[in-house]
Amino acid sequence: MLKLIEEYIRNSLPYYKNVKVLNENEYPKYKDHVFSLVMEGKVTLEGQSVTIQIALDKHFPLYKPLFFLKPYDALGFIAHVDSSGFICYIHDEGLLIDTNNVTGIIEEAFDKVLKTLKDGINGINRKDIQNEFESYWSHLDNTFLIESNIELTNNVKKIKVAKFENYPYYFAGDSISDIMNYCYKYIGKTRMGKPIFIDALYIPLREGTDIIPPSYGTFWTMKKFRHIIYKNVTSSNKKIIEHIVKHKVRSSDVLIVLVSIPLLNGNKAFIGVKYSNFSAIKQGANKRTEYFSHPLYKTDAKCKFVPVRIVRHDKGYIMPRGGGINLLTSKKVALIGCGSVGGYIAVELAKAGVQNITLIDQDTLMQENVYRHTLGVNSLIPERYKNNEGTVKFHSKILGLKREIEEKLPYTNIEVLPEYIDRIENIISNNIVDFWKYDLVIVAIGNPTIELYINEYFHKKNGMPPVIFTWLEAYGIGGHAILTNNNNKNGCLKCLYTDPFDKQAPLYNRASFAAAGQFFAKQISGCGSVYMPYGSIDSMQTAIVATRLAIDVLIGKEKDNPILSWKGNADLFLDNGFKLSEYYFLTNENLFNSRYLYKNDFCDICGNLKGV
């Protein structure tokens, strides 16, 4: 196939002239690609003849053809050409390649490459250089890497930078405590070693700033950088900078200035510079001087001046972004029940961006739980016992979840108090939790009697938040989540247990996929080991339904009180001799379309005709 491709590129590819095949020692080097064929030829663009290499990965056509401009600056500093000459003409994510049409792939790709280069020559895609500021910055020579969890505010501020004894990179933060709290989780206390802290400066440029990064192989002078800063900050920030930079610097000082730049696409680039090794410009006049002006004040010393590439860990960067999800960070959720379903809900709520979650559950995590719970055997025993502190005992589920979530998701606050490790009915009767302060309460305890009690409690108290009840059915035949107390609309858990035609009918959940009058619990070794048969996937699926509903409530998308259900395969359920309800045989579309039709006017909790 390579011979045919070679002949096509040499003789038939439009606009490609003076084509030759390169030897392996002439191949470009790019990431982890291993090339099977590289050809080089000439193209005339806007009256200028340039050299372009076409490189085919050894797995082509599973990978797109790569193109390189030689030299990289043959057309000047233009968008989408990096310092290796690689031309970014299309992104790989979601790219579908017709592998049966190899010549068509090459020709279409080549057309896109030519258009990308022409747009660069004519300045049509110049804005892309600014929007990809950080990418260009990272390709500059002699970059110094700093990790950071600084909040990108609109005000100039002094910040701290840590250099750890056993960690190769500096880490910047708004305060020492911000750095240490994050790095304990990120790097590990033992790995970090002893830190040394230096003062640094954060400067935000104003909206409308129009600058592009230095071209490859060059860098700004200190004077140029100072000019860019003062030209593009607000007047109030300029005054703060002028006050800070009046202080002298010593020859041994290391100065770090980090800068956020508003981009045209609404994001921010975050870059920096580092000054070090200060010395007198004129050795004769002041060679004994150890103090110099701050380089943002004036240049009366020479120093090593390099770009800083920043790896961001700040909340605004790593937490979910966009749309209504931004509304979740300020919301407070109480989760009652942290078992197989509730555990997954807690984790997914945190990953969705809910920062403040209170966990309530009386149970400890036992070894028989770990294959259908988000926690594993490493959470069975508390860390303090593993560190030779305290006595051995099994770990509370809510304490295990708090540790698991806060270690993995650094900006999440999981509230767990000793008094929350109790039965929910005790917590309610003793007024231990102020439920009024929450935006949402989720109940995932799998006990319908207690759930009905909770449902009644929240409806009898004025001003209570919306409540989601969620539960899982046996053998993975399905799961449900019902919302109540939302937006002053009727509909509640008791509606499902109220027969609209017979008030004396036995209690039965009308949303159940199992027919009435059946018992599903199994036991392994006696009454103390009774459990409901279902798997972790079933728990996760139910948690997904409940979490999506929770997000819709918190961002104000859901205005009513629906019941949402998912339906699984019933083969195992039927093989064990159980019977399905008529409700199970509704299609998924019908289940969704009827999500508000469960409401019962005769419900004695929320019904319009209760007591009639």
From TrEMBL:
GO terms for molecular function: tRNA threonylcarbamoyladenosine dehydratase; ubiquitin-like modifier activating enzyme activity. SUPFAM superfamilies: Activating enzymes of the ubiquitin-like proteins. GO terms for biological process: cyclic threonylcarbamoyladenosine biosynthetic process. Residues 37-145 form the Prokaryotic E2 family B domain. InterPro entries: Prok-E2_B_dom, ThiF/MoeB/HesA, ThiF_NAD_FAD-bd, Ubiquitin-activating_enz. It holds the Pfam family Prok-E2_B. Residues 327-534 form the THIF-type NAD/FAD binding fold domain. This is Thiamine biosynthesis protein ThiF. It comes from Clostridium thermopalmarium DSM 5974.
